[in-house]
Amino acid sequence: MSDKLQMMLEDAKELNALGLMSDSEVDAIAVMVKAREVSARIAKVKSMTGEEIKAIRTRYGMSQSVLAHTMGMSKESISKWERNEIKPSGPALRILNTLAIKGPEVFAK
């Protein structure tokens, strides 16, 4: 799809040069191409089990309280995740994925 969008952008530039397409239309296509490129570089979010969350936390020597503080969550949420009572989703799951890959240093000042 990205190749097709890139080809569409090149065609749009040519049409623009001929006066058949406006600058704003070309810009709109360029924004779509850039968004697609950025999206392709962002890692997919992987769901996690309670055991995986606890393993991340213990790998970095973090208590439930420290992980909760790092994530802007409550200790109770971390505990429920680790017991598989509830599953993290949305931004919390993205933060857990980032922690798993990069470690807590990614959030350092």
UniProtKB/TrEMBL annotation:
<dbReference type="GO" id="GO:0003677">
    <property type="term" value="F:DNA binding"/>
</dbReference>
<keyword id="KW-0238">DNA-binding</keyword>
<protein>
    <submittedName>
        <fullName>Helix-turn-helix domain-containing protein</fullName>
    </submittedName>
</protein>
<dbReference type="Pfam" id="PF01381">
    <property type="entry name" value="HTH_3"/>
</dbReference>
<feature type="domain" description="HTH cro/C1-type">
    <location>
        <begin position="53"/>
        <end position="106"/>
    </location>
</feature>
<keyword id="KW-0805">Transcription regulation</keyword>
<dbReference type="InterPro" id="IPR001387">
    <property type="entry name" value="Cro/C1-type_HTH"/>
</dbReference>
<dbReference type="InterPro" id="IPR052359">
    <property type="entry name" value="HTH-type_reg/antitoxin"/>
</dbReference>
<dbReference type="InterPro" id="IPR010982">
    <property type="entry name" value="Lambda_DNA-bd_dom_sf"/>
</dbReference>
<keyword id="KW-0804">Transcription</keyword>
